[in-house]
Amino acid sequence: MRVWAIALDVLREASSRRWLLALGVAVTAALLVIALSLKLEVVDGALAASHLFGASLGTDVRAAEVAMHAVFGAAAMVIYYAGLPFGVLLCADFAPRLLAPGRVEQLLSLPLRRGELLLGTWLGVLVLATGASLYAAGGLAFVLGVKTGVWAPGPFIAAALAGVTFAALYAAMLAAAVFVRSAALSGFVGLALYTFGIAGSYRLQAKTYLAPGAGREILLALTAALPRVAALGDAAGRLAADAPVEWPRLAALVGGALAFALGALAVAELRFEWKDY
Fold first, then answer.
1. What is the pLDDT of residue 57?
2. How far is the C-alpha of 70 from the C-alpha of 200, rounded, in Å?
3. From its phi and psi, is residue 53 left (phi > 0), alpha (psi between -120 and 50) or beta?
4. What residue ranges of the chain have pLDDT lower than 50?
5. Spatial distance between the Cα atoms of 77 and 163, rounded to a whole number of angstroms
6. According to the model, what pLDDT value does residue 178 have?
7. If DSSP codes are grouped into helix, strand and coil, which group holds residue 205?
8. Computed from CA positions of residues 248, 253, 255, 256, in that sequence, does the dihedral angle turn out positive or negative?
9. What's the start-to-end Cα distance of the chain, in Å?
C-alpha cells in the first residue's frame, strides 16, 4: 500500500502541472483534426474511397474490415514509435525532482523504505505514461471506428506494448537519476536506450553485415541485454493488423523487457541505499 501511496503522489504532482493539461488538450485537438479531416466512404460494408485534408488516399473498393487492418497496423506503429521518445522527454524530470534537496529528506523521514520510494515513483510514472498512450490510442480507435464501423483493439495493443517497453526505459532513467540528479541525463539515458534497443532488435542480422573485429563485438555486447524495442514494435503492428505473431517469441520479448526493468530498479535501489542525504 505504501508503494501505491507514492505512485498516487506522483500522479497528483503530475496533475498539478499545467503543461500536462496542455498536453491533454493538444492530443485531443489532434484527434479532432483527424476526425474532421478524414473522410471514409463505406458502401455496403466496403471501403469505396478515403480522403484526408481533401486529398484522395485511394478509391479501391475493398471490404472495410480487411482494408482497415493495414490502417490499424500503421496507427499502432505510430503510437508505439512516437509515443516512447515523447514519454521519455515528458517524464525525464520526475525522478530528479523526487531526489531534490529538501524533498528527498522529507520523504525519507516518513515510515518508508528507500526501495518502496523508488518502486512507487517508477509505478506512478509508468501509470501516467501508459495512461496517456491509452488515451491517444482510444481516441484514434474511436475516430476510425465511427468513420468505418470497424472496431479493433489494435491501437490499445500498441499502447500496452509501448507501456511494457517504457517500463524498461524508465527504470534505467530512474537509476541514472539516483547516480546523478539531472533531468537532462535521465532523458539522454532513456533516448539512448530507445535507440540502442532498436539496434539490438536487429543485432543478429547486423552481425552478418559488419566486418569482424573489436567494433562489431563491442556493439553486440552493448545490445545483448537491452530490451528489444523494435521487435516489440513490430509485434504491436502485426497484432493490430491481424497478422500472424509468434506468441512464444512475444512472451520472451515481454519477459526480457520486464527483467531488464527489474534489474535496473535493483541497481537503483542498491545505490540509493548507500547514498547519504
1. 47
2. 26
3. left
4. 52, 57, 59, 61
5. 13
6. 93
7. helix
8. positive
9. 25
CB burial string 104-141: b at 16+ within 10 A, e below: beebeeeeeebbbbbbbbbbbbbbbbbebbbbbbebbb
Which residue, chain included where needed, has cell 492530443? 27
DSSP alpha helix (H) spans, 149-246 = 154-179, 183-200, 203-207, 214-224, 229-240
Sign of CA dihedral 142, 130, 190, 195: negative
The cell for 169 is 526505459
The per-residue pLDDT for 152 is 76
> Residue 66 has which C-alpha cell?
480487411
Distance CA 228, CA 102 (A): 38
The DSSP letter of residue 40 is E
pLDDT at site 112: 79
pTM over 0.70: yes
- Residues whose CB falls within 8 Å of the CB of residue 250, separated by 6 or more in sequence, listed in order: 235
Give the angle 174-96-170 at the CA atoms, nearest 5°.
Answer: 25
Q: Give per-residue burial for 7-17: e unless 16+ CB within 10 Å, then b.
A: beebbeebeee
Rounded to the nearest 5 percent, the helix, strand and coil shares of the chain are 75, 5, 20
* Residues counted in the chain: 277
For residue 165, give the C-alpha cell. 517497453
Rounded to whole angstroms, the Cα distance separating 1 from 45 reads 50
Write the pLDDT tens digit of every residue in 114-140.
888 899 999 999 998 888 888 888 888
The single-letter code of the amino acid at 84 is L
